[in-house]
Amino acid sequence: MHSFKELTIEFSRRFNTPHFPKYPESLYAANDYFLGLGGKRIRPVMCLMGNELFNDIHEDAWQVATAIELFHNFTLIHDDIMDAAPRRRGFETVHQKYGASTALLAGDVMLVVAYEYLNKISSSHLKPIINLFSKTAREVCEGQQLDMDFEKLSTVSPGEYLKMIELKTSVLLAASLKMGAIIGGAGDGNSDHLYEFGKNLGIAFQIQDDYLDAFGDPEKFGKTAGGDIRQNKKTFLLIHALRTATGSQQQELHALLNSDSNDKVERVLKIFRDCNVDEWARQLKQQYFDKALFHIEEIAVLSSRKKPLLEIAEFLIQRDY
Amino acid sequence: MHSFKELTIEFSRRFNTPHFPKYPESLYAANDYFLGLGGKRIRPVMCLMGNELFNDIHEDAWQVATAIELFHNFTLIHDDIMDAAPRRRGFETVHQKYGASTALLAGDVMLVVAYEYLNKISSSHLKPIINLFSKTAREVCEGQQLDMDFEKLSTVSPGEYLKMIELKTSVLLAASLKMGAIIGGAGDGNSDHLYEFGKNLGIAFQIQDDYLDAFGDPEKFGKTAGGDIRQNKKTFLLIHALRTATGSQQQELHALLNSDSNDKVERVLKIFRDCNVDEWARQLKQQYFDKALFHIEEIAVLSSRKKPLLEIAEFLIQRDY
Questions:
Q1: ipTM, two decimals
Q2: Which of A193, B44, B104, B218 has the fewest CB atoms within 10 Å around its CB?
Q3: Interface with chain A: mutation pick from B138, B150, B166, B168, highest number of A CBs within 10 Å
């Protein structure tokens, strides 16, 4: 068994190799540039851990992990175009550096190359892997579309927001684990529980992310606090506040959403606290985390095999704040 | 055996069915809209003909044909974004109607769904089909990038232009035929010859397309003549003219490329004719067409089976002008 950290190091070492042809350089330099910016490689390592929960890591799992990481980077390149984001991980985004058209093509070709990696695995697992990968890829696109739709709406229900988060973020985490499980030879019951573990963990992580953006310590969190509030992003927190605030709080919140004043973040946070949004978010996160734990408990393997996954789940969720 | 026309009718009938989920409607309406605009469906029918050259059409060929047509439409949606084209087939382009972000995602998801159709075929052919499909998809992206690169260059060699055309246009025609051949049970030799037939036919077709845009009868051709000339597109004709024109013709040609005068098309065409570009293009087209015919002759099946493919090749190339 390997820890998350050990697998991250080994995956990063293997992933650090050319994935694209040399020609035309005008296209592939953009892909090489973006992959060179790094990343936490959480999803591919989840695939490896999903495999190792049931069996020694099979060579196929490395191929699928590579495909997953390429897919994830494809979504980032295209999302950055849609968001007109100038920077990612502290560096210029692909469209900023190479133009929108090349960024669009660089993303397209990265998705195609992801499928080329999938197609390297043994025939026995090819169909179920491509099935799950494609379904997930489709869902991630759907989640991104919902996210853009919600930006234009004045209200979004918690259920709608949850569905969006599930599609945009959680299903890829869940599917990464399950693809690993399939390669590890897991049966349907076990691999479905692992999928649900990943999905609920992903939702808990997103609630935490929303929470930390508002209430986190900027020094520990590494981002300026209140970014979501400044951009009027419909996070779990804002959606809940808009539903629980009193009449006068509602009025003030709507006025703040339409303003750009310097104390906007501070005043929105005060309303959040007055509505107990912080406590509510901590509880909601815990609920999803508990669901995740329930599903991993249901998996019929020796509990010692679950240790690395439980460790990384605790690490991702129990961040210091 | 079926004619191109018969297969087109049957493919169009089968293709005219929902290919996407209903939700989120904001995403999938864009895909349904674009597919509803129609198209000649040449590539999927080539796949069916490639199958029928060797064997009765297998159910798998319809799945692959569907994947090919979805892939082709994905490239059109994304190309239209890159070209900022307002109209396609007489209707609004997807980005014009639904916005660039939705068009980008609609294209992405269409590519994913293309792979979902591929993944429906029997396991025995899955790997070689996904291999060829993915390689071709990558090449089409490379061709589009080269096309954009060339727009910014002052000169492009005939060899470079040929490579671009091959990637952007011909390989998909070639691969469509070959994927059909694989499903029809053809051996490597036969299916490679069929690929070369399609590739050379595609190049001949592109030379003809360039020719007709300049010299074609607008009434028969259905486009305004001289569109490429007005846009300074580096077609086979312009590239050849720039290399064979005399000193004074060169000077005039470069001046015209930098001008927007009303008689631009007329004057460029005069230089083309003075340089015998029209005759040269007709000969070049014939050379590639002959190469295509050579390769289809080399395929070891009864010549009666080749009849529908030869008919459509003649039809595509020997257009009336």
A1: 0.95
A2: B218
A3: B138
